[in-house]
Design goal:
Layout: E1 12-16, E2 21-26, E3 29-34, E4 37-43, H1 47-59, H2 65-72, H3 76-89, H4 109-120, H5 125-132, H6 136-145, H7 158-167, H8 182-186, H9 210-213, H10 236-243, E5 257-260, H11 269-275, H12 277-284, H13 295-307, H14 321-328, H15 336-348, H16 352-366, E6 373-382, E7 392-395, E8 400-411, E9 417-422, H17 429-444, E10 449-452, H18 460-468, E11 471-476, E12 490-496, E13 499-514, E14 517-527, E15 534-539, H19 546-554, H20 557-569, E16 580-582, E17 588-590, H21 592-620, H22 630-636, H23 638-660, E18 664-666, H24 667-671, E19 676-678, H25 681-704, H26 711-723, E20 727-732, E21 735-740, H27 746-760, E22 772-777
Parallel strand pairs: 6-10, 10-11, 21-22
Antiparallel strand pairs: 1-2, 2-3, 3-4, 5-20, 6-8, 7-8, 8-9, 11-15, 12-13, 13-14, 14-15, 16-19, 17-18, 20-21
């Protein structure tokens, strides 16, 4: 007889996580089973234990995140959040929070201030909600808590309002008033035209019209810039979007503004754009994911600071942020802390070398005519700090050896900077020039160039290396050599770069031995005007005239003048960063202990020479009648003779100790600890920006030269003074019109006016906008 078995109300099911773990379900009860063993069980409404089961599978390595999410019927993000909550607060973090109605949304302090400012300016709740990217009810509650609830609309005369509405021009954009903006308070000359809104008072009703809501700024998507609307000098909404993570960089916006200090710096903007500094920086450097000041605005700020002679970031404390911000299309320029944080961010990416190479490549393509002659020289930058111990270097202008770093610069034919490489502190120009020229060859390609340097690069081995690598060279001859006879000199004249020169020159062949053979060179000797001094120049260029070789060699002083100008005008030697980094511990350096012994040997040798001189003077004055024999002379001068013997013995002992010391050791052995050096990235980056600013000045000097008679002597002074000129700006018909005030004298004003006409012909647009730059100068 078959017995009827009771039916199971809740049949069991099994969900396989993977081959080792399963979840058994019986009705409302769940059980986690691993390798046949029950691990956890929970009811359907026990969400904390359910999350603990997911965390256990992941933390014990029993399943993957995707397998857990599929088995438990949730998203991978849910599993990830559960693991993070457990790691932060344990099992308590898995307990779900209280559900149900929440309290009113509380805005942050910054957003609350913006809402109050917009409401005080007459904006409706809906317009404020659009500007802040939130709901109308949230804005209403926020303002009610601040004591700014809905206002009673004021009754107006409808007949008068209708009459004014017919007479008033139609408006499509409602201005945004400036509220709690320090920049506006300091820039009183800036004026904004407020379009009339007839029939509506400042206390507008709560229901916005279509015209009032249309121009409101919508929150941009992440990584995009905010739309241009409202008052260009009030960027409070953009700052809110940046704090909310919705803005990667504030776009430049311009409007009507008078008496802008330093507006003349925008004269260099076409040259800066042509250099490619903004394009290259935008491709190589990555700014913050959400910020008001991005890559373009920071590089524009640093470039304009260099042109305005704001030599260090700390000088921004003495500069009006709104005035400098007008040049950037912002309400205010970044402050010192912000600018330094951006420099640290960019330097941490380690792309300054690529940044320089790309700028050099673009300049070579744009100006190939000035790359035929390259000037190379080292510049010593003195370090007066105490954070790091640097190797001493000889500072020629001070005639001292001081702790310093050495940079090797490459300038083009006109003396404009092209390349800079930080060298090893103890490396000579002859030793450091080959790797520097390897980088130059990378940007020059197959183009042949003549390198010009001073006696610091004298080395027949280097000359052979340069010829092998496809470089020509011109340099001074070093050491002793036979002077040319007077009858070998003849007068040579020539005109170069618009200048006529005349020299007395002798041209003769020269052969130099080097480790791999012999070089056949050319020697050009110049005789001074008074006929007393000869200067010898050697080169492998046999196709050039003697007068051009002499002229190119003597024009090396352009580079010395460049260093002086950059130190005084651009603070080239300023310490940009106070950070330090590790140096190569195996770098080969002179042994400081041997150098100390060499100094002692030199002092001992001088003492021996002094005693020998005393003894010789005594022998010359000896009276033969009293001391006819040497034995008597020695007895009479026994004290001096004894001192001489002791000095000679001391000199030999010190010399033996000196020879026992190796000439060169590693850097770590020299300082007795891991060597350090100043940060290179920030210095190279700022040097590149200063180079671009100098090149921009050179371009403007070249444009103004035909219109200014004293351009060779005062061209740069004219451009530097033009950068400081105030003026007015406005946006008209897609153009950013820059109108400068007259210069100090009529001839300078005329030259700057001609410069403006030539810049207008370039049809340049301000970076980050579609506004064409249009320059002019007000009639005096």
């Amino acid at each position: 007889m078959q017995l009827a078995m009771p039916l199971r109300e809740s049949p069991s099911t099994t969900v396989h996580v993977n081959a080792r773990a399963q979840v058994h379900v019986e009705g409302a009860v769940y059980c986690l089973v691993v390798s046949g063993l029950s691990v956890l069980s929970w009811k359907e409404d026990d969400l904390a234990t359910r999350s603990l089961a997911m965390v256990t599978l992941l933390r014990c390595g029993l399943a993957k995140q995707t397998e857990v999410a599929k088995a438990f019927g949730c998203d991978r993000v849910t599993v990830y959040r559960a693991v993070k909550a457990y790691e932060a607060d344990g099992v308590a973090g898995l307990v779900p929070g209280k559900t149900g109605p929440r309290g009113p949304r509380l805005f942050g302090e910054a957003v609350t201030k913006q809402a109050i400012a917009l409401r005080a300016a007459g904006e409706t709740f809906a317009a404020i909600a659009h500007r802040l990217g939130t709901s109308v009810s949230g804005v209403r509650h926020c303002l009610e808590r601040a004591g700014l609830g809905p206002r009673e609309p004021e009754q107006v005369d409808l007949a008068v309002a209708a009459k004014e509405a017919q007479a008033a021009p139609p408006t499509t954009e409602k201005p945004v008033a400036v509220a709690e903006q320090p920049a506006a308070a300091k820039s009183e000359p800036c004026t904004r035209e407020e379009p009339a809104t007839p029939g509506v008072t400042a206390d507008d009703s709560e229901a916005p019209s279509a015209e009032a809501v249309a121009p409101a700024v919508e929150p941009p998507a992440r990584g995009q810039t905010a739309p241009v609307a409202g008052d260009p000098w009030d960027r409070s909404a953009d700052r809110v979007f940046a704090r909310m993570g919705l803005l990667q960089e504030a776009p430049p916006q311009f409007g009507r503004c008078d008496h802008v200090a330093g507006l003349g710096a925008l004269l260099a903007m076409p040259a800066l754009i042509a250099s490619g500094i903004f394009d290259v920086a935008g491709k190589l450097y990555v700014g913050p994911s959400a910020a008001f000041y991005g890559v373009r605005s920071v590089f524009a700020c640093l470039s304009l600071m260099a042109l305005l002679r704001i030599k260090r970031p700390e000088r921004l404390r003495h500069t009006s942020p709104p005035d400098l911000g007008r040049l950037l299309g912002l309400d205010r320029a970044p402050e010192v802390k912000t600018l330094r944080s951006r420099l640290d961010l960019f330097s941490s990416q380690g792309r300054s070398e690529r940044f320089q190479e790309e700028l050099v490549r673009r300049r070579v393509e744009a100006h190939p005519e000035v790359m035929g002659f390259l000037y190379a020289d080292g510049h010593v930058r003195v370090y007066n700090g105490e954070q790091v111990t640097l190797t001493k270097a000889h500072v020629t202008r001070m005639r001292l050896s001081m702790p310093a770093t050495v940079d090797h610069w490459i300038n083009d034919r006109d003396g404009d900077p092209l390349f800079v490489v930080t060298a090893t502190p103890t490396g000579s120009l002859a030793k450091e020039l080959p790797p520097v020229l390897e980088q130059v060859r990378g940007v020059l390609g197959d183009r042949r160039a003549t390198v010009i340097f001073d006696r610091g690069g004298w080395s027949p081995k280097l000359f052979a290396h340069l010829v092998e690598k496809g470089f020509d060279f011109i340099t001074y001859r070093k050491g002793k050599y036979a002077k040319a006879r007077r009858d070998q000199f003849t007068e040579h004249s020539g005109t170069f770069d618009g200048r006529k020169v005349t020299y007395l020159l002798a041209d003769r062949p020269l052969k130099l031995d080097h480790p791999k053979g012999q070089l056949t060179l050319r020697e050009v000797v110049r005789l001074s005007e008074d006929g007393t001094h000869q200067t010898s120049i050697i080169t492998n260029r046999k196709d050039l005239s003697a007068v051009e070789i002499a002229y190119r060699m003597f024009e090396r002083w352009r580079q010395e003048n460049f260093f002086k100008y950059m130190r005084e005008e651009f603070a080239l030697d300023a310490l940009v960063s106070y950070g330090i980094e590790g140096d190569d511990p195996l770098r080969d350096v002179p042994n400081p202990e041997r150098k100390q012994k060499e100094r002692l040997v030199k002092e001992a040798r001088l003492e021996v020479a002094r005693l020998e001189r005393m003894l010789g003077e005594a022998a010359a004055d000896n009276e033969e009648a009293r001391r006819p024999t040497m034995r008597g002379f020695k007895i009479a001068n026994a004290e001096v003779g004894k001192k001489l013997q002791e000095a000679r013995a001391r000199m030999e002992r010190l010399r033996a100790e000196m020879l026992a010391k190796p000439r060169r050791v590693t850097a770590e052995e020299a300082v007795g600890k891991p060597p350090e050096r100043l940060l290179r990235e920030v210095k190279r980056l700022t040097d590149c920006i200063k180079m671009v600013a100098y090149q921009a000045e050179s371009s403007l000097v070249g444009l103004v030269a035909p219109h200014y008679r004293r351009h060779q002597d005062e061209g740069r002074k004219l451009i530097a003074s033009a950068m400081q000129l105030p003026g007015a700006m406005e946006v008209v018909e897609g153009e950013l019109r820059v109108t400068l005030e007259p210069a100090a004298s009529p001839n300078r004003t005329k030259a700057i006016r001609e410069l403006c006409e030539q810049l207008n012909a370039t049809e340049s647009t301000y970076p980050g906008t579609q506004l064409r730059l249009r320059y002019g100068i007000r009639e005096a």
